[in-house]
User: What shape does this take?
Amino acid sequence: MRAENGFGDFNLRIVLSNIGTLGDTNPLIAIALELKRRGHVPVMALPAVYESRVRPLGLEFHAVRPDIDPNNTLMVEMIYDVKKGTERGLREFLFPVLRQTYDDLLDAATKPERADLLLLGELNYAGPLVAEVTGIPWASYVLAPLSFFSAFDPPVLPPYPRMARADRAVPGFGRVIKRLARFVSRKWPEPIYALRRELGLPKGKNPLFDAKHSPYLVLALFSQVLGREQKDWPENTKITGFCYYDADAGNAALPAELEKFLSAGPAPVVFTLGSAAVLAAGRFYEFSAKAAIRLGVRAVLLIGTDPRNRLRQTLPETICVAEYAPFSKLFQRAELVVHQGGVGTTAQCLRASKPMLIMPYSHDQPDNGRRMRRLKVARVIQRGNYTPLRVARKLKSMLAEPKFARRAAQVAHRLELEDGVRSACDALEELYRNTRRA
Assistant: This one.
């Protein structure tokens, strides 16, 4: 029997697991810290690369394969291939070690004691199998509306971006997009079906679109400004709001040199590619610096640790280069942010009420970019069009139009009414109470 905690409930052992980028992991850390504050015992079952970020926070950590090598830029470039990136990421990175992922997560869920709940990210395809085998109640979560592949709010599919435009012209075309996604990927999940057979489980629902969502609770960890519930979303879906976290092992301070630069002049334009696309930057930072010089604006370039991103040209004092800075601290002091459209970066821009110029790579980024453009807080530029001249022109027009900043401020005010972390934790506690009553 679990002991009572200060919140009138029970001390729960909750395993939180995902396989993804740092941007995918940060919301899970935010939820874990709140669960710990409430007296529960969160166990972070993540790739080993995140151990150094998690343990200093006083959270239990259990490594789950596959690990993510931050120096493997070829892997990142493969996954961010707009045509085949999603397929290769699944079939060449996740699925070859699916059995090991299952074994690792099973250990985390049952040793040294059995978990009370599981919270699983959609890329942990072994997770629903562990829940089914052990009988542990589970919730799933997604970070962006793309994950639901709604026919009524059709996403931008990276390999077929023009199809999203057709939905406005042809009523019901969203159903075609949804069927196409399922048809193209129909052979991808065979390793999951094979593992289910090995475990003596029936074939079950499509793992890529259906089985990844929990029948008990699906947490949509994004704001309603990004996406509203559709009638073909999974049952028991709850939109919580964004779950913000971007500290480095608890340290949320800006680097000293960056702080000095920000204090020395007007708000800069920030150029960043988040936590993963930064490893496949190409000439993004070179062209960004040239665009800022052409436009005559102060700029911050967050280049990450990849040595290929270090600029060879001599830069003026109006440009500051840093490897990393917490977005929550930096964006509020920026004038505009240029980024790749990842949902974590997008959320921090919205929270800071900053206009955006989005250069999407793949996965959910083109869809997020379109949603921000519809929200009238951003413009989108395709990677093939990202040149110093074109970027400078777009930035000049955006900076000259106060409507972007006004609209961004309005959206930020709406976000102040949401508390994604609290809503997610409340829902998890309610799920446990419901399963006990059942």
